[in-house]
């Protein structure tokens, strides 16, 4: 509306200017014409005056009674009056010519000022519109920056809370790790006790198995095969089936031997019936053997219970290790996602800030260019704006360098995180493979222990039967020593060889169990080492996370500082806009003064027109007077 009103006022001023120029041209033409008429009238008056004076001088001496002195005096007075009026008109004409020239010059100056004011008014209106748009844009940018700063503060508080939570969680995990280490130490101590007890039971079994050499010899080949299979089991699983088949063959051989022994028992039933008294004598030894067998069975049950406990402990340790690994993995993935989200947010924020900075720079440049256009007549302001522009340009370059440094730091942190993630994945895969391999080994060893336990039970049953057979054979040997001495010697040697083989088998089984226990100890040691390494890596990750978070905080502080600088620049721009508005108001006042001056000039032109009209009337009166003088001059001449 103001712009439209200004345009209407400018159009009216231009119309008035055109009217004034046309009226000035008409007045100039009229003044020139009046000047010519005045010059003509002055010349005629001068000529008439001279003629009258000459006639008066010529006729003075010969004046007759036809003209009275009163008429002559009146005519002289009238001539004097005409001369005075002529002089007065000449003076007024000079003054009017000077005034007309002055008005003409002043109108030219006012026309130039009016054109410059029109141009300045148009430029000022454009600058005002641009300044309004820039003010609205800067206010929007300020609101967005305030929102961003508030969001950054909220994110920083959330990050601090997450850091505190992560520290608490780290302390909790360290406490749990200490508890787990104590549990591992207790388990190791329990395992050592179990191993010691197992060795004691093995020693007792060895003491009892000294009489089972004959049966143990038949299983010597199977024990060697099992030992070879256990040594090469990690890389040759196919041989396990072969060993199982060989073991089945050995069991079948044992069953065949048992059948043969049963046949021998049946063959010696008659001898048993004949030698009942000697059997009664040997029952005490058999009872002692059965007690030893019961102790052996109790030891086997204890071994089985301890093996089950060891299996349970191993499974629990593995589950706990897997649970901790899964928790660490999920936590690491969550931290990685959170870091990725934080990096994406920071990159988005940096991009938004860069866009806002670019827009602010463009707006500042546009505003400064407009201000430069509007303030070209103020060199001090121009110099000050130039210095401000240079300072803002330097600050802009500094902020751009800071932004590039922050972007490079973010990229380096991201690359480091990616490398750490890749290394973590590889180590996690290695740990998982090692855990899986150890679990398979433990399961395999457990299966072998179960099989060995079954074989041991079977062998013990066979030993019991063989001992009974041996006792019966011994009793029968005493009775029929004379008739069956050679046969009993061979049978005794064969039984002693079997017992020796079974003893060797038991020793191998004890060695295998000890090796299994040692493997489990090694596995627990490896798990403890892995737990220590996980703890160290977790501490390293926490340190890197804290370092990255400190970098992000520093970048946020720099961004906040840059936002404050932009707010200061915006306030300075607002002050400059107010200054421009003040200058615009001053220019409006100057335009009002020009309009008042134009109105004064119009009034002066109207007064000049009226004065010209009065001059015209006066000239007409003078013309009438000249006509009267011309009509009167013949009478004067007569």
Describe the structure.
- The chain is mainly alpha-helical.
- It has a domain of 196 residues.
- The protein is 95% helix and 0% strand.
- It contains nine helices and no strands.
- Helix 7 packs antiparallel against helix 8.
- The C terminus is likely disordered.
Give the topology.
Blueprint: H1 2-60, H2 69-208, H3 213-217, H4 220-231, H5 238-267, H6 269-274, H7 276-374, H8 379-479, H9 481-637
Helix pairs in contact: 1-2, 1-9, 2-7, 2-9, 4-5, 4-9, 5-8, 7-8, 7-9, 8-9
Pfam families: CCCAP
GO biological process, one term: cilium assembly
Region (Disordered): 1-28
- Count of helical regions: 9
Q: Major sheet, described briefly?
A: none
Q: What is the first-to-last residue Cα distance?
A: 80 Å
Q: What's the gyration radius in Å? A: 65 Å
Structural class: mainly alpha
Give the uncertain stretches in residue-range form: 632-638
Mean pLDDT over all positions: 64
Form type: rod-shaped
The proportion of residues forming helix, as a percent range, comes to over 70%
Strand content: under 5%
* Total beta strands: 0
SSE string: HHHHHHHHH
Biased composition (Polar residues): 8-25
GO cellular component, one term: centriole
Coiled coil: 209-501, 542-625
GO biological process, one term: cilium assembly
How do you describe this structure in short?
The chain has 638 residues and is an all-alpha fold.
Key phrases:
0% strand
């Amino acid at each position: 509306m103001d712009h439209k009103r200004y345009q209407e006022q400018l159009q009216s001023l231009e119309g008035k200017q055109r009217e004034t120029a046309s009226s000035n041209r008409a007045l100039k033409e009229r003044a020139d014409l009046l000047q010519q008429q005045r010059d003509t009238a002055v010349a005629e008056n001068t000529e008439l005056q001279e003629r009258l004076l000459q006639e008066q001088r010529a006729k003075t001496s010969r004046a007759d009674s036809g003209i009275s002195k009163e008429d002559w005096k009146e005519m002289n007075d009238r001539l004097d009056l005409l001369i005075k009026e002529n002089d007065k008109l000449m003076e007024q004409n000079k003054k009017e010519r000077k005034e007309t020239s002055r008005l003409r010059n002043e109108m030219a100056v006012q026309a130039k000022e009016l054109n410059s004011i029109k141009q300045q008014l148009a430029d000022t209106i454009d600058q005002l519109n641009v300044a309004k748009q820039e003010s609205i844009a800067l206010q929007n940018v300020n609101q967005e920056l305030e929102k961003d700063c508030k969001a950054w503060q909220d994110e920083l508080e959330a990050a601090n809370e997450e850091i505190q939570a992560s520290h608490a969680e780290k302390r909790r995990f360290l406490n749990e790790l200490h508890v787990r280490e104590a549990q591992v130490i207790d388990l190791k101590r329990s395992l050592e006790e179990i191993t010691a007890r197992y060795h004691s039971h093995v020693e007792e079994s060895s003491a009892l198995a000294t009489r089972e050499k004959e049966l143990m010899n038949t299983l010597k080949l199977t024990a060697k095969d099992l030992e070879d299979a256990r040594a090469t089991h990690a890389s040759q699983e196919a041989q396990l089936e072969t060993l199982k088949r060989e073991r089945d063959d050995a069991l079948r051989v044992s069953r065949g031997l048992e059948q043969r022994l049963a046949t021998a028992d049946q063959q010696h039933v008659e001898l048993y019936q004949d030698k009942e008294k000697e059997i009664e004598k040997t029952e005490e030894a058999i009872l002692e053997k059965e007690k030893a067998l019961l102790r052996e069975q109790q030891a086997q049950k204890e071994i089985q219970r301890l093996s089950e406990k060891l299996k349970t402990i191993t499974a629990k340790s593995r589950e706990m290790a897997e649970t901790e690994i899964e928790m660490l993995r999920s936590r690491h993935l969550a931290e990685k996602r959170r870091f990725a989200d934080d990096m994406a947010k920071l990159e988005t924020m940096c991009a938004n800030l860069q866009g806002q900075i670019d827009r602010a720079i463009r707006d500042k440049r546009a505003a400064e260019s407009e201000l430069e256009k509007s303030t070209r007549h103020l060199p001090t302001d121009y110099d000050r704006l130039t210095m401000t522009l240079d300072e803002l340009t330097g600050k802009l370059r500094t902020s751009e360098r800071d932004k590039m440094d922050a972007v490079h730091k973010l990229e380096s942190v991201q690359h480091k995180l990616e490398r750490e993630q890749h290394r973590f994945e590889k180590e996690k895969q290695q740990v998982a493979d090692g855990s899986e391999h150890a679990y398979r080994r433990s399961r395999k060893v457990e299966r072998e222990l179960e099989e060995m336990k079954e074989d041991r039970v079977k062998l013990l049953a066979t030993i019991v039967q063989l001992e009974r057979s041996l006792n019966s054979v011994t009793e029968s040997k005493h009775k029929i020593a004379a008739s069956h001495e050679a046969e009993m010697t061979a049978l005794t040697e064969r039984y002693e060889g079997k017992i020796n083989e079974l003893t060797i088998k038991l020793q191998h089984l004890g060695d295998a169990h000890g090796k299994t226990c040692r493997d489990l100890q090694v596995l627990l040691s490896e798990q403890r080492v892995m737990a220590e390494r996980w703890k160290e890596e977790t501490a390293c990750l926490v340190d890197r996370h804290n370092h990255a978070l400190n970098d992000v905080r520093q970048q946020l502080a720099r961004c906040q500082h840059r936002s404050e600088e932009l707010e200061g620049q915006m306030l300075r721009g607002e002050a400059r806009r107010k200054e421009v508005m003040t200058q615009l108001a001053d220019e409006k006042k100057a335009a009002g003064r020009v309009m008042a001056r134009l109105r004064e000039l119009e009034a002066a032109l109207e007064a000049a027109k009226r004065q010209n009209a009065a001059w015209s009337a006066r000239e007409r009166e003078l013309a009438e007077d000249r006509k009267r003088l011309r009509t009167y001059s013949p009478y004067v001449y007569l």
